[in-house]
Amino acid sequence: MMISNQMTEYQSIDANEFSGDVVQNEVVNLTRWEKYFKYKEQGISFVRTESLRNFIRVYGIPNQYRGELWMQFSGSIFRKDMNNGYYEDLVEKFRGKQSLSTEEIERDIRRSFPNHPFYQKEAGLSSLRNVLTAFSWHNPSIGYCQSMNIVSALLLLFMDESSAFWTLCSLCDHFLPGYYTKTMVGSTIDQQVFNTLFKQYLPDLHEHLSAICPPDELTVMVLPWFLCLFINILPLETSLQVLDSFFYEGVTVLFQIGLSLFLTRKDDIFNMSSAEEICTMVKTKNEDLLPFKSDLLPTAFKNFEGVTSSAIAVLRDGLRFQKIQNMQKKNRTTLVFDVKPSTKFTIQQLQSIYDKFYLFQSDYIDLKIFSKLILDFTPWWEYRPELFVPLFKLFDKNHDGVLDFCEFAEGLSELWSKTVIEDRFEYCFRLHVDNMEQLVDRSVVYCVLDAFTRMHYGDHVMELNGFVQTIFLKAGDNLINFAKLQELVITEPLLISFLDLAELQGSKPISV
After folding, report:
1. Rounded distance, CA 78 to CA 166, Å?
2. pLDDT, greater one: 290 or 242
3. d(CA 21, CA 16)
């Protein structure tokens, strides 16, 4: 990758935001990096090497190059190039549309760097709104989660909207999966991992905290550090250098910095006797922890070198299964009893549906997962895959692009419980038209009848060409509306004979 020599037009960090010492250090560092590019890497993609890792750890990345290098290290630059125009189309497509996520975004955008000049103007707020809103529609299973506004606001100080959007996608998908979700299972597991590492590396401090703090208090204190990537926790200059290493090395940096922060405050913490004092210390911005004045970063990488990605993965794997199992066991009973009154299923049937739904390890499923899951209950849908989209829309009552367990169970119940022929036929007709008053031709009628026989009678599919011809001969026209079609279909002797045979052979709408 060729690094540009010009300050990008969206750069909003300037010298006035830093102390004189930091500004001087930035000038020196810029010269240092320009020499590095000249003699080491200019004109080629970066290869992850120990020397480059150490270079970033010690010096950090100059503001001028941060946006471009963050994108390359995170892989978001490649996602952006492969999806040229996607972000812009997303912004336009959903401009002005409302959802629960957009309401939450609107409440939070003015809390994101409120003192920064960029976000005191409508242009800055609009850019942040666009990025967060686009992501909420791009990934409705996540939508919007607090702290995403802080992270996105910082990204926009170093890159344009599309770049910030794709970097946010990389954060949520690859760097911190399960963090910014409604269950926050990823961040919850990592807090337990952090607690395990804390006890392993700082046993005396861990014992002291355990004695004066309520259970899980450490998790409550540390959670914002990870969600915000230490932004607004450490001085701006320090948090930027943390992000430099984070994008290059990954999530291990967050664990190392968190442990180092406790270690550098060790003497202060031992003199504290209450959880309130600890919380106050944790929430303080730690203005003395500037990169060139503090040992925070060197301590993180030296004292906690053993905190590796493989060590974290082992701890995560052990905790993830236990966490998900406990969450699902607790939620299973609650959700099944909550949804029971709005379905026709028994408790046992709902428990079976729940178990299959949560095999995908998410509280929400999108169209792609739905297309797989529905086949467990109605396998003949594989013959008509084009109907997955309209069927998903019928299940998606709140039109947010995802289904939770309750929506899925209720939709499945509606599909299963239509025992009256007229109701079944109407349901199939809705899958093929946007408007029930719409006039349809022979091809649509054929598809409706094919879905009707497959959906409710499995493999018992009748020969339809002659049947459709008979219907239109009786109608006396080449187009027909729903009311007339239903009247002709349900009174046709050929169909009645077929339905009677299918019923006798035990065909059922779904299998639970």
Report:
1. 9
2. 242
3. 12
User: How high does pLDDT run on average in the chain?
Assistant: 82
Residue 351 has pLDDT above 70, yes or no: yes
Residue 8 has pLDDT above 50, yes or no: no
Amino acid, res. 96: G
* pLDDT tens, residue by residue, 56-89: 999 999 998 999 999 999 999 999 998 999 999 9
CA distances to 331, 375, 412, 445, 469 from 336, rounded to whole Å, are 8, 21, 14, 38, 46
Least confident of 82-91, 252-261, 277-286, 388-397: 277-286
Sort 34 into a burial class: Cβ within 10 Å, 0-12 / 13-18 / 19+: middle
Residue 320 structure tokens = 């993830």
Q: What are the φ and ψ backbone dihedral angles of 413, each rounded to 5 degrees?
A: -65, -40
HEC assignment per residue over 96-115:
CCCCHHHHHHHHHHHHCCCC
Query: Helices in 304-420 by DSSP H: which ranges?
Result: 309-339, 347-357, 367-373, 388-395, 405-417
Tell me what percent of the residues of the chain surpass a pLDDT of 90: 33
Residue 122 has pLDDT above 50, yes or no: yes
* Greatest Cα-to-Cα distance within the chain, rounded to the nearest angstrom: 93
Helix axes 309-339, 185-201, angle to 10 degrees: 140
Tell me the C-alpha distance between 370 and 368, whole Å.
5
In total, the chain counts a number of residues equal to 512
**Distance in angstroms (rounded) separating the CA atoms of residues 443 and 435:** 17
Smallest Cα–Cα separation from 510: which of 410, 379, 335?
Answer: 379
CA dist 308 and 250 (Å) reads: 10
What are 170-197's pLDDT values in tens digits? 999 889 988 887 778 788 889 989 999 9
Instruction: Using the CB atoms, write b or e for 131-166: b if 16+ within 10 Å.
Output: bbbbbbbbbbbbbbbebbbbbbbbbbbbbbbbbbbb
- Tell me the C-alpha distance between 86 and 254, whole Å: 31
Instruction: Compute the distance between CA of residue 202 and CA of residue 208 in angstroms, rounded to an integer.
Output: 10
State how far the Cα of 288 lies from the Cα of 258, in Å rounded to an integer. 16
The number of beta carbons lying within 10 Å of the beta carbon of residue 298 is 13
pLDDT at residue number 178 = 83
Q: Specify the residue for token string 């970033």.
A: 56
SS3 assignment, position 331: helix
Closest among 223, 243, 245, 247 to 235, alpha carbons compared: 243
The pLDDT of 102-130, averaged and rounded, is 92
Give helix 236-249 / helix 296-303 axis angle, nearest 10°: 30
SS3 440: strand
> Among residues 176, 167, 154, which one has the least CA distance to residue 76?
167
Measured in degrees and rounded to the nearest 5, phi and psi for residue 350 equal -65, -35
Q: What's the average model confidence in pLDDT over 417-431?
A: 78
